[in-house]
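Record type: ASSEMBLY
Status: queued
Input:
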Amino acid sequence: MVEVGHFALVLAFALALVQSIVPLVGARVGDERMMAVAGPVTMAGFALVALAFVVLMISYARSDFSLVNVWENSHSLKPMLYKITGTWGNHEGSMLLWALILTLFGSLVAVFGANLPASLRATVLAVQGWIGTAFLLFILVTSNPFVRLSPAPIEGRDLNPILQDIGLAIHPPLLYLGYVGFSVCFSFAVAALIDGRIDASWARWVRPWTLAAWAFLTGGVAMGSYWAYYELGWGGFWFWDPVENASFMPWLAGTALLHSAIVMEKRSALKIWTLLLAILTFSLSLLGTFLVRSGVLTSVHAFATDPSRGIFILCILVVFIGGSLALFALRSSTLTAGGIFHPISREGALVLNNLFLTTATATVFVGTLYPLAVEALWGEKISVGEPFFNLTFGPVMVPLLLAVPFGPLLAWKRGDAFAAAQRLMTAFAGAFLAVLVTLLFVDRTAVLASLGVGLSAWLVLGALTDLALKAGFGSVPFSTMLRRLVGLPRSMFGTALAHLGLGLTTLGIVGVMAFETENILAMKPGQTAEISGHVLRFDGIQPVQGPNYTESRARFALLGAGGQVAGEIVSSKRFYPVRQMPTTEAGIRTMGLSQLYVSIGDETSDGSLVVRIWWKPLVTLIWGGALAMMLGGVVSLFDRRLRVGAPSRRQRGLPRGTETVTS
Amino acid sequence: MKRKGLLATLLFVLLVLMVWNGPAFALLPGEALPDPALEARARTLSAELRCMVCQNQSIDVSDAELARDLRILVRERLKAGDSDEQVLDYVVSRYGEFVLLKPRFSVRNALLWSTPAVVLLTGGFFVALMASRRRKALPEALTPRESAALDEILRR
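Status: finished
Output:
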């Protein structure tokens, strides 16, 4: 059965070659039959990669150690969930997941793109085919998961214990759906360059794909952050680790793309820039894949290291990024520049957004790769870590965040900044109040932190103001306002929700960075520890036998005001004997929006236990805000306008002009 | 006040002795300096120093043995009266610049530190250039006579 998967993968590679060439030639010479090949071939390719993936998954579920890949990364005692998620918890499997998602997106373009202009559809699918060809070849040549081992060992070497977590089931698939989703934007951009034609309908095609990829990537990055937070045991939510940066760069660039695509769709401006951004975003996705998969960086995600594969991915990187940029340089002059606008306008605001997001992306890019450059040029090693990014990335983001509430309030073409400022007075007053309250009632010395709280309030209230104004707050009766609110285009809710989420995430980050408290002590059973008004009693430690690990489980009782037990927190350390690796399972109790985080060390010689307790105020908002952003993307995706090709259902009798009032 | 300080120091020494041979675990109880101002400086410095045997952790959060030695070293230097810069210099002289998570402002690192400003300014310049080009293409605002005429038409 394993060979079926192997053959399917080889066949998928062959089909990807067909997909790369035949439709493209067809589009060039105008042969409809050749162009029509694209759809079926793409979908067949997806079916074959899916078959290969399922075969590998079954091999994992059945602990078939005759496969080198399964033997290296699985164990018969591992719980079934981790056997299945372990399919992509290793290099080969995760590349197969990458290819699976790539072909999935290709098929989606084939299915939903039925009413695309035939030559554009054929060219887009051909470009998808190029990417598919490259990665399937990479898998077959350097990272084949179907390599056999004879004689088959009795037992496997187990999965890295850090990965034996529900996070592995969610984080990589979401992340890849985002990463690879941008390949569609890339293919559309390259197709537009080949055709030498780009118009507003092109943007209308690209925007839903950008939205979908961005929403997935937002979820993936947030999930990765939360996973690291609870699994690595020192309570950080973002480490500026190169591998994290690798996923953060496409997110920043994708966010810029999302916004510039709006300008292009609505006003046919920023065409060339949007095209370049589409290429850059996917290039950063490829770069991320290279950084993680080649292991050129020292990082906490170092389980994915193999330099020999690095060369291959580097070649893919050079061919695709270099090729597309060369194509861009050659052809972009043939594209016509679009609509004109005043600097103070919605377009102007979105240009500002792009300027700052691009700067932020460049900052992360240089910070991530600089140590590599220094090592290559001077042979010296330097580190670029969290303190650097806090000093550079932060100041770049703050002006952008300050400007966010203005954007949606400015009119297209020519806006009135003063009128927008007036309408934001309530939000500004609210933000000012938030600063005062923080200063007076939380911490009188925390000036910067209270300004951060004010910034978050500004973002949240700004997003709400936007919705309220568009529903006609203050100018129409309440019932009319509600009716208008319900009738607003979904994309407006999406925008408001995403900007609101940004404010919540900011608030969470400010809360943790400024007001976190920490208590490190050695505790004996029965002793209590106090942190930010919460009292914890250590109730002792006991050994527990898990399916494939042993665990020291420490119990803590959360004491109420009267000394009664109000709750329990369990924090443990695990030891996985097969890999000889310890892991920490932090004890986390969510109280409102904040969390109490307990992490344990080892027992000291006198029988006391080293305990680290953190009070993390508002920490859940970091990921809650990201979820709101993701939801905003999804809501926008279901905007009627984006259901391309759907017959427009403009109500009879409604003057055409009313449309512009709400958009 | 003085007695309290002495007690704290005694307790500190006792705790250090207690955990000296104990297993490592990030910042350990007893590692913290009794003087809160000095300890705050030690924490800030620790967050800027890389744990040399770890993947990408500062010595402040790492539970490696080496990180702990370095944390104690930083605190010893601070107690001896070193300035923050002197402590960093000392650590760099022993471990090289790799130990700094925040690279120094030097000619070699000029590109690294200047990237945000350079990209922002260059980008801003191009945006301004485009805007001025566009403004030339933008239709002139209505003259008072034209807008009066427009009002007239709209009123009809």
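Annotation: Residues 1-25 of chain B have pLDDT under 50 and may be disordered.
Annotation: Residues 110-155 of chain B form one domain.
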